[in-house]
Specification:
binds 2-succinylbenzoate; alpha/beta; 4-stranded antiparallel sheet; 22% strand; binds magnesium ion
Length: 374
């Protein structure tokens, strides 16, 4: 496919409610969207970098620079066939995975449209519907959290994930479990504990949690493997897994029993599929994480979640939980059974509302092929 234009935009979108994790509160998102035009078709990608480099080293601004200065010009200079060609094209650029995924995922969207198949079908997805969970941020009080859980369960969500950190953990789990003894419950610490907290973390075993996500350092396997030996609750790694080799190392070291896959964190569909396959071959279930995406990123997550070994409910939930008005049509909807039905139209299956995108855009740059020097 010939690349006719790559347009990068930054959109400002306000979340329906603030989202608090162990590394801070997000109220507004600065979302980067890549629009790639090729032979009459348009593919869309979304950058999952945060506004600040707290979840990973990337940020909205670092991704903007990586895409406009390096990755965009490299891609624009190519004629390629598949989304799977992108890792080779971007190979010279180290890291910057969320920036790379922004472009690669748009190429997969284009490829699916060109083939006239859904993105799910193109990547080899097998599920027609996917199970959905919610990720609930740290709240001002436990009663406020309980009210939110009640609402999400009533909406049908199949799994509740609670963000936790020292001071917002055991007491919270106690109150939630005493009210709902049997719901599927998990927690995500976003690296807020240390190995010296191991005794405290063993207290989590009393709450029948499906998993504890990323309890220790963001870049660690070894201490997680030491911790896992002391916990009955399965550890799930999120921040630590950047590629297939990381997944293999973590599985081999028994650092985790479950893996969260995020397209941006691993650099796009090629590597996400590779992580999925490596985990599947070793009997490790995976699920799809979320990064407070707009409907564009969410539609990629939905397609990814149809691969066979996505065996647990993901953080893939309805547009209305994040946005008063999402930028895709139809909006992403979750049934009362807590499922999303997979669209079978070509590409991502959710149209982009281009007029709304234009209105929300605060900066825009068209990237052209340049003679690469140096
Ligand atoms: O660790 O899974 C995480 C949001 C931002 C950064 C990191 C994480 C999250 C979430 C929210 O848990 C998932 C979502 O609803 O998009
Ligand atoms: Mg996480």
């Amino acid at each position: 496919m010939r690349i006719d234009a790559i347009i990068l935009r930054e959109l400002h979108m306000t979340l329906v409610r603030p989202f608090e994790t162990s590394f801070g509160i997000t109220r507004k998102r600065r979302i980067l969207l890549a629009e790639i035009k090729s032979e009459g078709l348009t593919g869309w990608g979304e950058c999952t970098a945060g506004e600040r480099p707290f979840f990973s080293e990337e940020s909205t601004d670092s991704a903007w620079a990586a895409i406009t200065q390096e990755l965009g010009p490299m891609l624009a200079a190519e004629t390629l066939e598949h989304g799977g060609d992108c890792p080779r094209i971007f190979r010279q650029v180290r890291h910057n995975r969320m920036a790379k995924a922004t472009l690669e995922d748009a190429i997969w969207d284009l490829e699916a449209q060109r083939e006239g198949v859904s993105l799910s079908r193109l990547i080899g997805g097998v599920h027609d519907v996917i199970p959905c969970g919610v990720s609930l941020g740290i709240q001002a009080s436990i009663p406020e959290l309980l009210a939110q859980i009640e609402k999400e369960l009533a909406a049908g969500y199949q799994r509740i994930k609670l963000k936790c950190k020292p001071g917002w953990d055991v007491e919270v789990f106690e109150r939630v479990r005493s009210r709902w003894p049997a719901i599927t419950l998990s927690c995500d610490a976003n690296s807020s504990y240390r190995l010296k907290d191991a005794d405290h973390l063993t207290a989590f075993d009393a709450f029948d949690l499906l998993m504890i996500e990323q309890p220790l350092w963001h870049d660690d396997f070894y201490y997680h493997s030491m911790l896992q030996k002391r916990l009955q609750t399965p550890i799930c790694l999120d921040e630590s897994i950047h590629n297939r080799r990381d997944a293999l190392a973590a599985i081999e070291m028994e650092s985790c029993r479950i893996i969260n896959i995020k397209l941006g964190r691993v650099g796009g569909f090629s590597e996400a599929i590779a992580v999925h396959n490596a985990a599947q071959e070793r009997g490790i279930p995976v699920w799809c994480g979320g990064m407070l995406e707009s409907g564009v990123g969410r539609s990629h997550n939905i397609a990814l979640s149809t691969l066979e070994n996505f065996a647990l409910p993901g953080d893939v939930s309805a547009s209305a939980r994040y946005w008063h008005e999402d930028i895709v049509e139809p909006e992403i909807a979750v049934s009362s059974a807590g499922e999303i039905a997979i669209p079978d139209t070509p590409g991502r299956g959710y149209e982009v509302r281009t007029e709304l995108v234009e209105r929300l855009t605060v900066r825009k740059e068209t990237i052209r092929a340049v003679e690469l020097v140096g």
